[in-house]
């Protein structure tokens, strides 16, 4: 996977997709900086990696703040050396409800975390990643189609897809790539699923049910593919990872 001896930064790395990606990168020989708004979560995952013989550092940070983005990239470089990869995975989900019941405060929160955060992270990644590296941003299936009961979240994730596509040229000028992943339903602690403290060999992951729920590692494996050299021809794209959730109409049983 060409990760051995390289360094990566993972935001939202304290749980769910980010934790799975951090542990898989470490298993492939990559040094990993784990960024999370909850330091204790980042520290736990870093401990799991180092307990398995890998190299990891835990960093607390709020992706919606520009000074935090500058700081956690700098701290990662100080601890691990020059960075090769960035998986900008951190985000927040919105409570579900009708469009006309969403408050301005909730909409602004969705934009700040789910769109401004990736924008700030991508600016740092473009400036700091070594040529030949790559960045991946977690968008959502909601970034490719409207979600009637999550308008703020869907708007922000649509913005992430546009951001990635628009940034691809300037990343390429520095010998870098940038892509997005768009997960469907994923069983993460953010929605109440049990925490996973280990990863499986990819061959043992199995196949999710048609339009079924994914494990965090299933999504993380796609992020690793897009970071790695096997995807060298892919830049500025949004990869849907949804077990065919959006493959056909209607997307759910008829009412």
Describe the structure.
With 255 residues, the protein is an alpha/beta fold. The protein has helices at 16-27, 39-51, 66-80, 104-128, 151-173, 216-227, and strands at 7-11, 31-36, 56-60, 85-88, 134-138, 177-183, 238-241. Helix 1 runs parallel beside helix 2 and helix 1 crosses helix 6. 47% of the residues are buried. The model has no long low-confidence stretch (mean pLDDT 94).
Helix/strand/pairing category: alpha/beta
Q: Describe the oligomeric state of these chains in a short phrase.
A: single chain
Numbering strands along the chain, what is their spatial order in the largest sheet? 3-2-1-4-5-6-7
Distance between the termini: 45 Å
What is the succession of H and E elements?
EHEHEHEHEHEHE
Helix content range: 25-40%
Parts with pLDDT < 50 across at least 5 consecutive residues: none
